[in-house]
């Protein structure tokens, strides 16, 4: 049975906060995790694990920009189970801490709001 990759991506995006393993996604799709992994990789040239991580990080960045939630609250809402590993991953991938990201984005937004064209 063919898998609709867009459907898989939408499911992950909508449920990122409660997905802990690839098995969670596979269970929803009623298929084996290995079949899902292989199919996702073949169709997207990206591993499912990397896609889920990317979605978690995008979720965190969005919440940092749009809310005043504390960093640890955002981490758990993004589906990470450990605050320390999530913070290290964010820093490694994004190149700054979550707090630095939030401050930089807000400074950028504030500066651009004051610029007249």
What does this structure look like?
There is one protein chain. With 117 residues, this protein is mostly helical. The chain has one domain (5-114): Arc Repressor Mutant, subunit A (Orthogonal Bundle), CATH 1.10.10.60. It is built from 7 helices and no strands. The protein starts with a helix and ends with a helix. The model has no long low-confidence stretch (mean pLDDT 92).
Put the structure in a nutshell:
The protein has 117 residues and is an all-alpha fold. It is built from seven helices and no strands.
List the helices and strands and how they pair.
Layout: H1 5-15, H2 22-29, H3 33-44, H4 48-66, H5 71-77, H6 83-94, H7 98-114
Salient structural properties:
elongated, mainly alpha, 117 residues, Arc Repressor Mutant, subunit A, 7 helices, single chain
Helix proportion:
over 70%
Radius of gyration: 17 Å
CATH third-tier fold name: Arc Repressor Mutant, subunit A
Indicate the proportion of strand residues.
under 5%
Low-confidence stretches: none
SSE class: mainly alpha
């Amino acid at each position: 049975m063919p898998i609709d990759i867009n459907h898989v991506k939408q499911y992950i995006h909508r449920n990122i906060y409660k997905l802990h393993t690839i098995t969670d996604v596979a269970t929803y799709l009623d298929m084996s995790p290995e079949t899902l992994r292989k199919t996702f990789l073949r169709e997207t040239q990206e591993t499912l694990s990397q896609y889920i991580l990317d979605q978690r990080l995008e979720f965190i960045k969005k919440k940092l920009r749009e809310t005043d939630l504390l960093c640890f609250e955002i981490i758990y809402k993004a589906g990470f189970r450990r605050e320390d590993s999530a913070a290290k991953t964010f820093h490694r991938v994004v190149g700054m801490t979550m707090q630095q990201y939030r401050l930089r984005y807000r400074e950028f937004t504030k500066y651009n709001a004051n610029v007249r064209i």
